[in-house]
Task: structure prediction
Amino acid sequence: MARLGGDEFALWLDGVLVSTNLTALGAFAANATRIECSANAVTPMDTWQVWIDATGTATPAVFTPTAFLDASLNLMTATPNIQGVTDVWGLIQQLCDAEFATAGFDEDLNFRFVNRYDVPPVSGVTVTSLTQIKALNHEVNEANRARAVTASCTPFAIQPLAVVWQASDVYVVPAKGSISFFVTLSGPTAFVPNGGAILGQGQNPTVQLGGVNSYRGNTKADGTGPDTDTMGMTVVQLDSQTCKVTLTNPANHATYMVSPSIYTDMPAGSASIWLIGYPVNGGASVAQGTTSVTVSSTYGTGLPALPLPDSPWRQDQDTVQTLCTDVLADLVVPRPVLTQFTIVGDSSLQLGDRVTAQGRGELASLGNPARPPAVLADDLILTSIHPTISKDGGFVQEITARLVGRPRQWILGQPGRSELGSTTYI
Result:
């Protein structure tokens, strides 16, 4: 918990005062004052709350997070149209696939979003050939290598404020009543305001006082009656191209949403509701009408380019370029993939866990003393787990894993660095 008051900033972490900084910023005199607090080893951003109060003393409180989110590595300008999507879990996985992240629930049912840079720093479990490892195979082949990686992205830019929807039909709001309706905007739009106000003579909806949506109303359908300026207007943006509009009429008469005859800037009786927002489309560096561009990272020649699957969630060329470079760095000198890695079941293991595998050749020596002992002593990241339970075999898990070591840190034939041959006996 943090308290902002006067010119002081006090931060509590789980009830303990850990910092009093930012005193040089001056007094926080207005609600619009903006400050930035950065995370560090003492104050991770997922463990504290902010409380703004000019007087009194903050009451420290323990905050128990139920979600842990790494910073996204995929910069986006706008959300693609997700209207009608019912598979929320699949939607989360699409976001992960766009930047090669993972998301799911841990053993304590906390949700975790982990970006591709967040490799567990230490191993949580050690499996050995004496206690758990039942079988092991590995592969390094051309299919796991790449000299070029390409990916497409759909660049977007936020354009100046504009009218993104205008009524073409006349809406009627009953006396002391309200109506709600859904509208489709002219295109992908960001930041449609929540409220609305009457539009005055000669005014432009995009410069409406307070930056809100606009309407005009009259007691008659042809606009020849008294105008109505007491309407309530609420707009909720449901997705990038859909809004729900609610009009409330406190008057004792029905109101027609038309332009009154007292206004001369448009014909009396014209439908008069306007929604404003910031259109999102191709930016200055991208020709209008361009749906996507392709970026790539290359190192040497000799192998076909590896195209990454398309994703509507990739919109920024720089971050997609970084993604290509990261994948290329991972595949230009590939790490061996351990397959058919069967162990005695451990229900605590889950995808993304880091485990230490140790094999000293004991099983190899027992099975065939003429074989030299194989050496396996490395940390692995689990990429798939397939558990099975049978009467004869008990509880076992077949795992696929990749070595944690970066390229050239895993060396065939180097003692202590996973000395595995083309065939390994354990």
Remarks:
- The first helix runs from residue 88 to 99.
- The longest strand covers residues 376-390.
